[in-house]
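User: For my dataset I need records formatted as: sequence, then structure tokens, nothing else. Please produce one.
Assistant:
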Amino acid sequence: MQGPINAHLLSISTVTTNKILVADEAFSLCFGSIQLPKVEVLILNSRTKNYSLPLFVQKLGQLTVLIIANYGGCPAELINFSEVDYLSNLKRIRFEHVSISSLGTSLKMSLIMCKIGKASDNCINMFPDLVQIEIAYCADLVEFSVGQCKIGHLKKLSMTEFNELSALPAALGALTSLEVLRLHSCTKLEGLPVSIGNLLKLKFLDISNCVSMSKMPARMGELCDLRTLYMSGCWGLSELPQSVEDLDQQLK
């Protein structure tokens, strides 16, 4: 195919008939060099059991919406979903009849200046193998739900620049694989849950500019792997538990 296609919306279907099979793998090979400089919405319809994203997807710099729909009898397995890591403008992903169990364990999710509302629980629980979550400048996030604390593989949790988040649930202690916890500039956060003492793998904790924080749990001293603690700008912390002061011996 010669020359660029200047469409803003592109819909591609791979179908199976009695005589002809249009395979996703063949499509990727044949159209890998296609030029789509203006595509903002991409709809991929499939009937195959295993679906591989077309090679050109990672080149769609203007893509904001990606819809992957499967009309086969069983949910399609996504093979190379990591290609979307290259799509810096992607705002929305929709799956229809797609298995997400094959997305792997090295998953990262970033929500920057997004409207989350009550949908955050359903969204994040769809990806139980997430290893990193970054949420920032999401003004409508008032609480971090217990449901989100069921992610056993999570190693990094960053929740920064929140003006309404006032507390964290006790279930935070269930994130036993957590190594990095950033809570920078959560201006209404009043404290940390006692269960934070369960995070024995935690190495990095940032509570800087949490101006409303007035207390820290004594179990902070149980964070045996903690090496970095940022707490500048926590003007409400007039005194620290002795166990927290003892952390000086292990902090870098």
